[in-house]
Automatic annotation (TrEMBL):
Subcellular location: Secreted
Domain CREG-like beta-barrel per the UniProt entry, residue ranges: 21-189
Gene Ontology annotations for the cellular component aspect, listed alphabetically: cytoplasm; endomembrane system; extracellular space
Protein name (database record): CREG1 protein
Signal peptide location: 1-19
InterPro entries (alphabetical): CREG, CREG_beta-barrel, Split_barrel_FMN-bd
Name of the coding gene: Creg1
Species annotation: Chunga burmeisteri
Coiled-coil boundaries: none
Amino acid sequence: MAGFVFLCAAALLLTAGGAIPPPEEAARMARFVLHSCDWGALATLSTQEGLRGRPFANIFSLSDGPPGPFSGSGVPYLYLTDMEISVQDLEINSNASLTVSLAETPYCKKHRYDPQNPLCAHIIFCGSIVKVNDSEAGLAKKALFSRHPEMESWPKDHNWFFAKFNITNIWVLDYFGGLKIVTPEEYYSVKP
């Protein structure tokens, strides 16, 4: 039920007039797209036999805060286990990139934008994955479990932990003319 409520809220948010930030507000667009997405593609450098040192992308559920406008922190939180193949990569090298796209929302389909069309905005974050400390764990739990309620019932013997994507670089592709670079300072200083 919570997933359905979020989907309806996301659809309303994305179809509301003026909800999508204009192309000249790249930092706001980055915050908007992240908050609109429930998952992203996380790329690591593989440590697996036969793939060692090669790029490896995997899908992860994420959240920067509970659903709804203006409730996102901008911090991509994840719920991870050491049993996951990409997490094993991160234990050796915590550097990663994370891509989120409005293609996962109703917005691009409504406008008939192909996911590769720049108007179907996507954001590429570079940085590293770090476990959250005890003081941030409650915030991460609320952000993730509000959007992904089934996480609460995932097997306890998998030793799940809360982590965040520590952003160092941001690229925004939301219009024609190429990528826009947004600094983390710009990103965190704007309201989505």
